[in-house]
Amino acid sequence: MLGAIAGDIIGSRFEHDNHKSKDFDLFHSDCRFTDDTVCTVAVADCLLNDGDFAEYLGRFATLYSSRGFGGMFLRWAHQWDRQPYGSYGNGSAMRVSPVAYIARDEGEVLDLAERSAEVTHNHPDAITGAQATALAIWLGRNGSDADEIRSATVARFGYDLSQTVDEIRPGYSFDIRCVGTVPPALVCALEAESFEDAIRNAVSIGGDTDTICAIAGGVAESLFGLPEEIETTARGFLNAELLDVVDRFREKCAEHSTTAS
Asked: Largest Cα–Cα distance in the chain?
């Protein structure tokens, strides 16, 4: 899931200042982790402890409320009785990557993705976006190539992934809907030649850049791995609490893979 976190950090400085080019420094002093990272870590911690997604997302959002959360999500987080509010936004997809590291098969991927989404984003489009993102990562981790992931995503979810990054870039603008975020983010990853290329693709199309980069980064990590230099630099933006969850989740996933094999 560090691929999603690295994507969030790299894309953070371009969210409200889009940069329609692949030419930029990956990391900058203006970069920071945002709500995308916080929610991703919350999902991971929940999976580590077999917990309740609403409880973990609410707790982490309350602790890190200054990290760019939307108003509706923060109001939800601060409620005692947290009920889903029908959102069709991209928040369900940006936080889902840990699911793909725990799920044992496609059915469990789809189930866990839905469960992680529906505590807030229970609109069908948001659930689909979470499922499509998680399944793409899971397929990549289990040996599928970009073409196979593209075909599976189109067949199961009906997304149009026919445009190239160069075709998306000129007319794409800020869009917080899952249906407007997940397909272009997937294209950015599936058209890439490396993890870094996927992130540069994602920044270059503009829009809700930190979230597009988080989704693309999660998928790209499953296809290419995460370069050590990028991982080390991204980790440097996280505090001890977040790193503890990241490291414990990695250990759990390693144990999970050994048991499964």
From this structure: 47
HSE at residue 55, side-chain half, CA atoms within 13 A, is 7
pLDDT of the residue at 63: 96
Query: Contact, 80 vs 46, CB < 8 A?
Result: no
Helix residue spans in 14-141 (DSSP H): 35-48, 53-63, 71-77, 91-94, 99-102, 106-118, 124-141
- The answer to whether residues 103 and 131 touch, using CB atoms and an 8 Å cutoff, is no
Taking the model in full, what pTM does it have?
Answer: 0.96
The torsion region of residue 225 among left (phi > 0), alpha (psi -120 to 50) and beta comes to left
Looking at residue 261, its pLDDT comes to 41
Long-range CB contact pairs, 103-106, < 8 A, 24+: 103/134, 103/138, 104/260, 106/135, 106/138
- Residue 43 near residue 5, CB atoms below 8 Å: no
Tokens representing 90 are 């991209």
Amino acid at 149: I
Q: What is the pLDDT of residue 256?
A: 67
- Which residues of the chain have a pLDDT value below 70? 256-261
Residue ranges and CATH numbers for the domains of the chain are: 2-12+32-256 (1.10.4080.10)
